[in-house]
Design a protein that fits this description.
The protein is of the alpha+beta class. The chain has helices spanning 2-23, 121-138, 279-286; strands at 35-39, 51-52, 55-56, 58-62, 65-71, 79-86, 92-99, 106-109, 158-161, 166-169, 172-173, 180-183, 189-191, 196-204, 208-216, 219-226, 228-229, 236-237, 242-245, 256-263, 266-268. Bound molecules: zinc ion.
């Protein structure tokens, strides 16, 4: 059975987006910052008993098959991993998958406001307080919401920074780019890529004016650097609802949207949720 499961995983990863696009599942990419959709044995214990690295995992049905939709943290080392879940008889089952290495390109940025690269003690205190709020937002689990994993672009614009870039600010190494940047003129409307609920809004040291959306089952999206926020916490949004306007608040070199997608608390590549996404073109844009 183990070997059969392994075969199924390989089969599905070969099919990639072709198989998943019709089923509204994200493009599977078993790499750090990627997403995998793992077929589950029938009769798993509902609503969701699937666990990966101690975290609850989204379960979706597509074409009469249940899948665990697993976000892979950027810090994950290549190798074999497993999810565990319980069936209705109380038996523990596991499903293994292999994460392969991915070399993300390097990006060098120059920031005029040096405090955004080397924050002063007061800034560090603010950042620590904000991190508590952000962690709380990321920890949200709403079982009742059925997430739609086929996103629209939140706006049209040039991809100015792809997901995962190894970043240097003013020559100093910083955390990898855990979102997707779309450059557009200040004031361009930013629209919800899928239905959800506004989890929180705020002004943050790094992400500026930001909106967090909950789409259900551990799928949270974030929109940063806005000049203006146009929604309020608790508000239900549909695909296309105006969230705010493009700006360059927080740490930004120019007006753009920083779009973050979190799945089981892992920041993953937003582009995997957009059909007909061409990764090569995004990487080419990042090298401009
Ligand atoms: Zn960004």
């Amino acid at each position: 059975m183990k070997q059969l499961n392994f075969f199924i995983i390989i089969f599905f990863s070969l099919l990639g987006s072709i198989a998943f696009a019709n089923n509204h599942l994200p493009k599977a990419e078993a790499v750090p910052g990627g997403v995998v959709a793992l077929p589950l044995a029938s009769k798993f214990k509902r609503p969701s008993s699937v666990i990966f690295q101690g975290r609850q995992i989204m379960v979706l049905n597509a074409s009469k098959q249940d899948y665990a939709i697993v976000g892979i943290p950027l810090s994950t080392k290549p190798g074999n991993y497993q999810i565990n879940y319980t069936d209705q008889a109380g038996q523990t089952l596991k499903q293994t998958f292999t994460v392969r290495a991915k070399a993300y390109p390097t990006q060098y940025l120059t920031i005029a406001n040096k405090r955004k690269v080397n924050p002063n003690p007061a800034d560090l205190q603010r950042i620590a307080q904000e991190q508590v709020i952000i962690d709380k937002l990321k920890n949200t689990w709403t079982q009742a919401m059925q997430p739609n994993l086929q996103f629209n672009w939140p706006l049209k614009g040039r991809i100015s920074s792809a997901f995962g870039l190894q970043r240097f600010y003013n020559g100093e190494p910083r955390s990898p780019h855990a979102g997707l940047d779309i450059a557009a003129p200040a004031g361009t409307p930013i629209k919800a890529p899928a239905a959800g609920r506004v989890l929180g809004t705020g002004n943050f040291f790094y992400s500026g004016n930001a909106v967090y959306l909950d789409h259900g089952q551990g799928l949270i999206t974030m929109y940063g650097h806005m000049s203006k926020i146009k929604v309020r916490p608790g508000q239900l949004v549909k695909t296309g609802t105006l969230l705010g306007l493009v700006g360059q608040t927080g740490r930004a070199t120019g007006p753009h949207l920083h779009w973050g997608v979190m799945l089981n608390k892992a920041l993953v590549d937003p582009a995997l949720f957009i059909s007909q996404y061409r990764h090569d073109s995004v990487l080419a844009a990042a090298r401009e």
